[in-house]
Automatic annotation (TrEMBL):
First and last residue of the signal peptide: 1-22
The protein's name in its UniProt record: Alginate export domain-containing protein
Record keyword Signal present: yes
Keywords: Signal
Length: 550
């Protein structure tokens, strides 16, 4: 409540002062409640239905200081709060003090004779189509970046430069240079019904974690968790058996004699049975062994992630246009560069040694729309290059570099609104999440890339009611490998399956909208995670969101 009170006091003070300072304040934002019902989000025959609701409040106050200076802020409250998750509940993830209010952005916009400047934690702006963009979440532009931007409009052109710090590794450390910095240069040409542009990016990431290190840590941590759980269970089993035997012997032998009898059994200095059904000495040995295995697994991951240096160029042209009833959007993304490792590695499949990865990856998307008599038909194709072989000396995963949260074609396969980008489909044998195609570097599906086409239609039933249908077919571009130490290079099946979505958008009244989705995935064999004998089942999700915007 302290944060809420401070925020209200701050805004109130600024608004009270506004007449004196000639300060103009505009506040926009939203509040929404959304509910989910997933029949089988792990795509497993043993999975249970999960049904829950979440909420979010977002406000964006903009303070006009002068005609040339504005200060923009943004904050959220109760973001991601699950209904029924209370701070007093055991195991609750809801923290009333720290997660209730979160500042998302604060930046100044300055107009000068040589262009406009944006300085601060900026709410990112999408470029071109949604390919390569991760600016929005749940349809709200709330993913911020720390940057300085210079923008110069000249006639029909708008150009600019951006310096962005995406990771800070130097502060307080005298012997490291681990900053992650991106620099951008862009120019766009805009006409009334079409636009085109080129974005050139330079990634200089000195604290970059490559895929091999990340996967090793993920697998190692999951192994540690499993061994630690086993050790906890073994110790609890031993403690329970010890307590039960002691409770039975103490009334018969006395406390000291009972204790001595048990210790003698554990030390194998006598043959006291202690109950024929319980081998207490073996239970103790099992607990000790399990604890040792967990400790050994923990030591392997105690160093955490190692950092390498990634230097990449990214070229990103786009075209968007509307010509009568026909609309077209297209974008191409090409990345190339090197990744300098902090160690020398050996590819066990061919014996080659290397301390650098050559990087080259690309992605492309095209979407065509045709509008007639209240109907809008669309079809398109997206290619996102994947790379699931993290044991060689090449790097080629667009999804590892850019998550593309904004590029949504298929509620289950590509959307972060589905709330399953890091969990969909369960895990592989090492406990690493499969996730959906917006899952990014943490997931196997995100790094494997995809080849996808879709066909859809929308119909404007009423001025305030629109319904739609979408068909999506997708497969992995470079499916994960069964064994990266084998020269066979055998891979999982690449078929993601086919998704069928029904959507509704109902503007109930001014500022109040209901969005609904029914999404079904006919799951392909990709979700068997390389096990041809695994059983998988389809998933159907019902989603509804009631949102008020102001």
């Amino acid at each position: 409540m302290k944060k809420v009170s401070l925020l209200i006091a701050l805004c109130s003070a600024l608004m009270i002062a506004a007449p004196v300072m000639a300060l103009e304040v505009e506040v926009s934002g939203h509040y929404f409640v959304e509910t989910y019902n997933n029949s089988n989000s792990n795509l497993s025959p043993n999975d249970a239905t999960d049904d829950y609701s979440k909420m979010e409040f977002m406000a964006k106050p903009v303070f006009k200081i002068t005609d040339n200076i504005t200060l923009t802020t943004q904050f959220t409250g109760l973001e991601g709060h699950v209904w029924g998750d209370n701070p007093s509940d055991a195991g609750s993830e809801f923290d009333d003090d720290y997660n209730n209010i979160e500042w998302k952005a604060a930046y100044m916009t300055i107009k000068t004779p040589i262009g406009g400047f944006i300085v601060g934690r900026y709410i990112d702006t999408p470029w071109g189509t949604d390919l390569g963009d991760s600016t929005a979440s749940h349809g709200s532009n709330d993913l911020a970046k720390d940057r300085i931007m210079w923008v110069v409009p000249v006639g029909d052109f708008i150009s600019g430069l951006v310096y962005q710090r995406v990771g800070e590794g130097d502060k307080g450390v005298s012997d490291s240079d681990k900053d992650n910095i991106r620099a951008y240069g862009f120019t766009a040409y805009k006409q009334e019904n079409w636009s085109t542009g080129l974005l050139v990016s330079r990634y200089n990431l000195k604290g970059f974690v490559d895929m091999a290190d990340l996967r090793a840590l993920q697998a190692g941590y999951n192994n540690y968790e499993a061994l630690n759980d086993a050790a906890t269970l073994a110790q609890a089993t031993y403690d329970g058996a010890y307590a039960q035997i002691y409770a039975g012997l103490a009334p018969l032998l006395g406390e000291d004699a009972a204790y001595a009898a048990i210790q003698g059994e554990l030390a194998a200095t006598n043959d006291f049975a202690l109950g024929q059904a319980v081998d207490l000495a073996n239970l103790q040995r099992d607990a000790s062994l399990a604890a040792g295995q967990a400790a050994a697994a923990g030591s392997l991951i105690s160093g955490g992630l190692t950092n390498s240096t990634a230097a990449f160029w990214v070229l990103d042209p786009y075209f968007k246009g509307t010509f009568g009833p026909l609309g077209i959007e297209a974008e191409f993304l090409y990345a190339f560069g090197t990744l300098e490792l902090d160690e020398t590695r050996t590819d066990v499949r061919n014996g080659s040694q290397f301390d650098e990865l050559d990087g080259e990856a690309m992605a492309a998307t095209i979407d065509l729309k045709y509008t007639i008599a209240g109907f809008t038909f669309n079809g398109g194709y997206t290619y996102v290059q994947g790379d699931s072989d993290w044991a060689d000396d090449e790097f080629g995963s667009i999804g590892y570099l850019e998550q593309s949260i904004d590029l949504e074609h298929g509620f289950l396969l590509t959307s972060d609104t589905a709330d399953m980008e890091g969990t969909f489909g369960g895990t592989d044998a090492n406990g690493i999440a499969l996730g959906n195609l917006a899952g990014g570097r943490q997931t196997l599906a995100g790094c494997a890339g995809y080849q996808m086409y879709w066909l859809g239609a929308e119909y404007q039933v009423l001025d305030n009611l629109k319904i739609g249908a979408l068909f999506v077919s997708s497969k992995a571009d470079d499916a994960p490998y069964l064994d990266l130490t084998s020269t066979d290079k055998e891979q999982w099946d690449d078929d993601h399956g086919q998704e069928y979505d029904l959507t509704v958008e109902w503007n109930i009244m001014d500022n109040l909208t209901f969005n609904g989705v029914v999404a079904h995935l006919a799951a392909g064999d990709f979700w068997k995670a390389g096990d041809p004998d695994a059983e998988i089942e389809d998933n159907t999700t019902f989603y509804g969101q009631l949102i008020v915007e102001f």
